[in-house]
Structures are given as C-alpha cells and as structure tokens.
Amino acid sequence: MSANTLLTFRQIWASKTINYSLLILVTMLGVVVPCWYMEQYTAITPLVLGVIAAALAETDDNFWGRFKALVLTFICFAIASLSIEILYPYPLFFGIGLFFSTFGFIMLGAIGARYASIAFGSLLIAIYTMLGASESSSIFTQPIMLLTGAAWYYFLSLLWQSFWPMQPVQLSLAQTFQQLSFYLNAKSSRFHPSIGNHSQPMRLEEACLNANIVEALELCRHTFIKRSKKGHVNGPNDRFLRIYFLAQDIHERLSSSHYRYHDFAAHFERSDVLFRFKHLLQTYAQECQQIAEATRLNQPYVRSENSVFALDELQGAMTHLKQQNNPNWQQPLRQLQYLFDNLCTVDRLLNNINNPNAQPNDNVLDDKTAYTAKQMWQRIRDNISPSSILFRHAARMSIALTLGYTIIELFSIDHGFWILLTTLFVCQPNFSSTKQKLFHRISGTFAGLIIGVIMLTFIPDVQGQLFVIVLSSVLFFAFRLQNYAYATAVITVLVLFLFSQLGAGYAVILPRLVDTLIGSILAVGAVYFIMPDWQAKKIPSLMANSIAANDHYLGLIIAQYRVGKTDDLTYRIARRAAHSHDANLSAAISNMLAEPGKHRYAVDESFRFLTLSHALLSYVSALGAHRTLINDAVTHKLVIDAYQEIHVKLDAIDKALRDEAYDPQVFDTNHIQHKLSQWRESDGTSAQMILQQLHLIHRMLPEIKTLSQTFSKSK
Predict the structure, then answer these.
(1) Structure confidence by residue, pLDDT tens digits, 644-698
(2) At what angle do helices 603-625 and 535-563 cross, to 10 degrees?
(3) What angle do CA 673, 675, 677 make, to 5 degrees?
(4) CATH code of the domain made up of 535-712
(5) Which residues have CB under 8 Å from 106's CB, separation 6+?
(6) What is the 3-state secondary structure (H, E, C) of 94-142?
(7) Where do the structural domains in the chain lie, given as residue ranges?
(8) pLDDT digits (tens, 9 = 90+) for 41-93
C-alpha cells in the first residue's frame, strides 16, 4: 500500500462522520441480515428503533464511564418501555404517567449532559413502544425487542471505543484549532488599511466566532474531564491536555486588542505594515488548520517556513517605519510593537505544539460533575423553580406530550403517536431553536414522503427495501448533526420502509404528514404560551453576568502584576467564565432576532452593548496576555488605583443591569483618567502597555453605563 493511499485511508477514518457511520452500518447489518436470513421481517422494526434510541441517548465518556452510563440507560429504557405496555390499556393512568414521567426524565438533565441524553432516549423508547403497543401479543414482546436492538448497539459501541479510545479527544482538540483558524481569518480583516472600515460589524463577527471557539474549548474540556479522576488528567491524555492549554493561551492572545484598529489605518494607510500584519494572521490561520489536521490524524505537526518569513518581513517593515523618525507615528508605532510582541509569543506557542511539556502548566481541570447521590439531588432541587430554563422546558414538554396523547385518544388517530414523536424532537428550550427545528422537521418530512413514495414504487422486493432501511439509517446519523432537514427526510424514508415490512408502507404516508403538522403545532404552542423564555427578558442579566465576569477576570490579572504570571486553575476558571458569558450574550441576542417582533427589545442597543462588551473582553485579554511582575512601586500603585476606579464603575454597571441600588456619583469621578493619559504619552517602559489598556477600558465605561440604564428599565 502506497504512502498516499495510507494517508487517504487515515484521513477518511479520522472523519467523525465516516467513523460513526461505519459503526451504524455494522450495527444495522447485524440487525437486518439475521432477520432476512430467518425471514423474521416483523422483528426488524422494533430492533431498528431500539438501535436508533440507544444511539441518540449515547454520550462520550471513557470506557468504564460509558459502560456504567449504558447500564443506567438500559435500566431506564426497560422501565420506560414496560411502563408503557402496562399502562397502555388504561388511558387515564397512561396520561398521568406520561405527564409525570416526562417531567421527571427531563429534570434528570439537571445532573449533567449524560443524564439529559439518557432522559431523552428514555422518552424516545417510550414513544417507540407506543407505536406498536396495540399490536403487541404480550407486554414483554415490544420491550424485549427494543432492548435487544439497544443492547446490540451498545455492545458494538463499547467494542468500537476500545479500538480507538483517544479519537474523541483528538477530534475535539482538532475542532478547537479549526475554530481558531476561522477566528484568525476574521481578525486579519481588521488590519486592512482602509479608513472607511467600521469596527462594530467586525466586532460582532468576532464575537460570534469567539463564541464558537468558547464552545469548542468547552466541549474539549468536558472530553478531558470524562477521562479524568475528578479533574486530574494523567496517562495518554496528558499530552493532549497540554496542547489544550496551549490552545487556551493562543486564544487569549488572539482575542486581545491593543489599540483601536481604525486608528492604525489613519496613521499607516500609505504603508505596507498593516498588510504584513494581515498576512501574518492569515498564515497563522493556515497553521491552525494544519494543526487541526495533524491532531485529527494523530500525526506530529511539521511547521512550514511561511510564518517565519512573514514574521521576519513584518519585523523589517516595522524597523523601516521606526527609522523614519516621524513624531506622529511615535504612539501608534508603540502600539504596533506591543501587538508584534504578542504575535511573537503566539509563534512560540505554535512551536510548542509538538513539545507541549515545554509549557509549564498543571494538569488539573475544574470538574463540577455530580458524583454522589446528594450532589445529584441538590442539582435537581436547585432547578425546581420557574426561573430555571430546564424546569420550564420540562413543564412545556410534559403538557405538550400529554395534550398530544389526549388528542390521539379523543379522535382515535391511527399511528397518532408520531404526534408525540414530532413534539419531542421539535420542542426545544427556546423559541429560536424550536423555530429552526420546526422548519427542518416539516420540510424534511415533505421531502422524505415524496422520495419514499417514489422509492417504494420502484423497489417492491424485500431485499431492495432492506438495503434502503440500512442505507437510510446510516444517512440519518450522518446528517443528524450537520443538517436536521436532511436527517428528517431520510428517517421518513426509513419509517415508510420499516412499516412496509409490516404490510403498511403506503398506509402511513398521510398519517405521518398530518401527525407531523399536529406535533409541530403543539411544540410551537408550548414554547410560545407555556412559561415562554423570551430572550429580551434575560438579556439584561446576561449583560450583567458578562460585566461581572470581565471585572473578576481583570482583578485576577491585576493581582498577578504583584506576584508574577501564573496560569493556575483559579485564573483559568475566571478567563473561561469571561469568554463563556460573552458567548452566552452573543447567542441570546442572535436568538432574540428569531423571535416575534413584539418580544424583541432595543435590538440596536443590544448589538452596541455586545460590541462594547466584546471590546472590553479583548482589552482585558491583552492585559492577560502581557502579565508580568511590576517591581516599580509607583507604577504598581497607579495600576491599582486605575483598577479600583474601573472596578467601582463596572460594579455599578452590573448593579444597574440587575436593577439593584448603586451610587451614580461614581461616574462623576475621573481622577485616574488624567494620570493614565499622561503615562500613555510620556512613559516608554513595558508598564505603559498595561496603563494604556486600562485607559482604553476606562474610556469605554461611560457609554456602557448609558446603555445599561436603557436595559435596566426593560425588566
């Protein structure tokens, strides 16, 4: 086998979609082929549905963690399925049981993501049991068949993971560098030397892309935690964890802002220096893509010389500008030097990708997993409140599913449990996500029915239909996370062919369509009318959270100017919290745009606040990127005084957004502003960068305060 062929095979195998699709293919062949050989075609439907429910309920974990989760899932599946069979002849008790079991299962999600997936899978297996409960000859027949399908999938899944235990870590880490690459490409556009460049649209794009990086970093962190001992990572995961820490440091430096970029364009629009900064960032973006690919393939990363040349050329351009001795360039050139120093550090971090141990760091992560029954119950108790998003979602889903069951019973709807299935998939915790699912579900169902009817017409033989069942199952899981509309279309085809094995292929076409429409209406109605979660009402508190997190992050940075730089767990938690709250605010504002017009509030002001909030985080990140020990007592006192004044004002903004009492006179004092301005103009030491960043933060606060007053009145 040639080297190129081997590399191509590794690239295909390293694809998460292809790898997972192969697992589904093997699982489905293990179901369909024996049933075809023994001519037990009626057994195919419950077995396949059991596989689907098991796969949808599965979450990533280490081998033993996954084994324990699968045992718990199996027990929940058995309880859910048997309960349906026992209560099915008694509609009143069935409805009551459906309401409380739905609420209870969803509230289990308060314990963690694993339990949320188990809860969803249990509800799904319950509805799948309903689909065949009326034809079941025994209360044990359906549960046994569904659980057999689930057990077969879980067996293969454990076997699959034992062969490739590190692949989830590699893929999550590769995704992080992929998102860093996208962010770098967007950031590079800030250095296009055009005075007409407007910063707000660019800041908003950066905020959105930064949210994607935060999500990727958080997914990666959870992947490590699941393979740790209460946050302590050892063994083969340790090397990847250190690369993860490198990615965090790179992110902090790339998300920093050292100056107002449009001011650079005003000074250097006739120079090529900004183009060289832009080229260097684009080169780093390409490197992050290459690191992602090397991590995905578990190969050593080999740096190209492009970034070395780009860095040398940029240094030469800056040297040339300094030799001009232009007095108007003195201040902006100083800012460019800070930026250049920051990118040199990024270059050093990229050099350490193949030697992550060169970067000093502990191997402890913030693990908030609930391990004991007491901790789990406390998580659930904390969410038993109308203010909890999970509680409201559980209430909506319980009422919607119970109402759907009532409609089925009142109108004696054949195959009516597809109403419940649609509601389960479409009803999401917020209106924006539900609206998106609704469109994909309906459009996918229509397309799937059209394609399915055509295929049923031209593929009447059993062998051909079994092939379509296997193929559509694989395609459903391949599309599930990429395009839900496509996934809905192929699973609709799957449903038609599964029922064709029961002699009812064409008979379920109209019920499938009608039930999908009814279930979608119930889902949208539940999100709109039952304890709705309109984003405009929560945006002020999210803004306050972002301001408070930035203030705390800044406080820890200032503290390290006295004791020296350290990336300990406390600092990393604060940094992650600042970025997470910024991402939450960005997501909430985007979700608000998808909501009905009357439920939106101050859209332009929201985007302006997000722009300023992200700029604030960028300025604070620059301080974090340049942490160093300050020995000069006078400089350190000025830094502390500046921080104290900024802290008091940020705290007042936080309280204003929460409608709490604060002293408005704190914004009338600007004692530190004049001193900071003097230092910015006179001092040429490394401390000047710290002082000028504090100056940039301080000058933003009046506008943030004005906007906060707008939102404090919205509650």
Answers:
(1) 989 999 999 999 999 888 887 777 776 666 666 655 444 445 677 888 888 889 8
(2) 20
(3) 70
(4) 1.20.58
(5) 116, 119, 123, 390, 393, 394, 397, 398
(6) HHHHHHHHHHHHHHHHHCCHHHHHHHHHHHHHHHHHHHHHCCCCCCCHH
(7) 168-213+230-358, 410-530, 535-712
(8) 889 999 999 999 999 999 888 888 888 888 999 999 999 999 999 999 999 99
